[in-house]
Each structure stands twice: as structure tokens, then as C-alpha cells.
Amino acid sequence: GQNIDQPTEMTATEGAIVQINCTYQTSGFNGLFWYQQHAGEAPTFLSYNVLDGLEEKGRFSSFLSRSKGYSYLLLKELQMKDSASYLCAVSDNYGQNFVFGPGTRLSVLP
Amino acid sequence: DTAVSQTPKYLVTQMGNDKSIKCEQNLGHDTMYWYKQDSKKFLKIMFSYNNKELIINETVPNRFSPKSPDKAHLNLHINSLELGDSAVYFCASSQTSGSIQETQYFGPGTRLLVL
């Protein structure tokens, strides 16, 4: 079966660092994606991991451990505009099945 | 230039009607998808098309039918609309290169409200 789990909501302060965790159990694994979705808008791509380790992209980093079925998204120097939902998604078989987690709603407070 | 476009952006209709949502991508991708995002914001895949072949069909009622006239288009036709069909429908596209699933690019969404 397919199961992806993320915390429902998180709150952090402007300028701080926040880590959003994602655990997954899928029938195959072909990559893990993180997307950002602002209210009323489409999801936009943030990062992609297919091998274990850390991928860094400016203020955003994503980590993957395939043996643990675990990933996290790290956001540094938080800004108010980072308030959004963050979606973890797994591609489980040559892109033929793309499963999204429930999303984590992040609120950044001044 | 818009990469993935959908029309209409908003759709308000009566129960029992038939409606279509259009999607076009100009990225040259070989796979297109339809997702439904309900009021709880859960994004669920409905269909995907790769080179004009349906390769995923989740447990979606057969009132929903995807139609792909060519690689750049994947339209969604819905028959006999029901109240529970109210949601945001997103189209997306990606390129599959061998065993690597490349990132999906999403359209702006179509907000469907069934009255």
C-alpha cells in the first residue's frame, strides 16, 4: 500500500529555522519531491531527492534516508512569505504512481 | 509563457450537468496528470497519460473520463456532476526519462462548485 505521513500544522518565528518531516511507505521508490502550495494557488516544486543525503537549494534543503523511509525539508531564515502548505510526494514506479502526503501547513509569525 | 494552462479557472454548475475542463502544456513533456484537491487540501491523483495511453486510473468514478487528443493536451470530462465533485482540479505534466521521474509542473487549477 501507499502511505505518506506529515505533521498537519507547524508554527515558527520569522528568521528561525524549521524542519518538516515526512515518512513514507510505498510499494516502490523512484524519488521524493517537496512542493510548496500557497492558499488558493497551485503546488510549486521545491526539491527532489532520489539518493540518500542532503540536497541544498538556497534557504531550502531536503534530506532523504531510503532505508528509513524518511525525509525532511529544512527552511532557514524564515520569511513571512514562507507561510504555506508543504507537500511531500513520492514517485513509486517509473513515474506511474505519484502519491502526495496530506501536507504540512506552516505559519510564520513575526 | 504559461507552461501548464487550464480552462476554465472557475466553474459553477448544477448537479446532473456534464462539464469539461481543458489542459494544455507547452513543455514538451510526455506525461500529463489530473489531480483532485478537496476541501481538506488532500491532493489525490486521478489519472495520468503517457504518450496517449492511460497508465493510472485510481478509484475514480467512471463519470470522469480523461481525453488526450495529443501529447500536449489532457482534458477531463465529467458526466452527471454530483455535489461531492466540488473541489479544485489540477492538471500537471512531467517528463519521464528512463527510470527517473522528473518533477511535475502544475496548472493554476480549476475551482469546481456543484450546486
Defining key terms:
heterodimer; A: 110 residues; mainly beta; 6-stranded mixed beta sheet; globular; B: 115 residues; 4-stranded antiparallel beta sheet
List the helices and strands and how they pair.
The complex is a heterodimer of chains A (110) and B (115).
Chain A: E1 3-5, E2 9-13, E3 18-25, E4 32-37, E5 44-49, E6 53-57, E7 60-65, E8 70-75, E9 84-91, E10 98-100, E11 104-109
Parallel strand pairs in A: 2-11
Antiparallel strand pairs in A: 1-3, 3-8, 4-5, 4-9, 6-7, 7-8, 9-10, 9-11
Chain B: E1 4-7, E2 10-13, E3 19-25, E4 31-37, E5 43-50, E6 53-57, E7 64-70, E8 73-78, E9 87-94, E10 96-97, E11 100-101, E12 105-106, E13 110-114
Parallel strand pairs in B: 2-13
Antiparallel strand pairs in B: 1-3, 3-8, 4-5, 4-9, 5-6, 7-8, 9-12, 9-13, 10-11
Overall pLDDT score of chain B: 89
Interface with most residues: A-B, 23 and 27 residues
State the end-to-end distance of chain B.
34 Å
Q: Please state the CA-atom Rg of chain A, rounded to the nearest Å.
A: 13 Å
What is the percentage of strand-forming residues of chain B?
over 45%
Number of helices of chain B: 0
Query: Structural class, from secondary structure content of chain B?
Result: mainly beta
Low-confidence stretches of chain A: none
Q: Could you tell me the strand content of chain A as a percent range?
A: over 45%
Order of helices and strands of chain A: EEEEEEEEEEE
Count of separate DSSP helical elements of chain A = 0
Structural class of chain A, by secondary structure, is: mainly beta
Shape of chain B: globular
Tell me, rounded to a whole number, the average pLDDT of chain A: 92
N- and C-termini, Cα separation of chain A: 41 Å
The tally of beta strands of chain B, per DSSP, is 13
Quaternary state of the chains: heterodimer
H/E element string of chain B? EEEEEEEEEEEEE
Q: What portion of residues of chain B is helical? A: under 10%
Kindly state the number of beta strands of chain A: 11
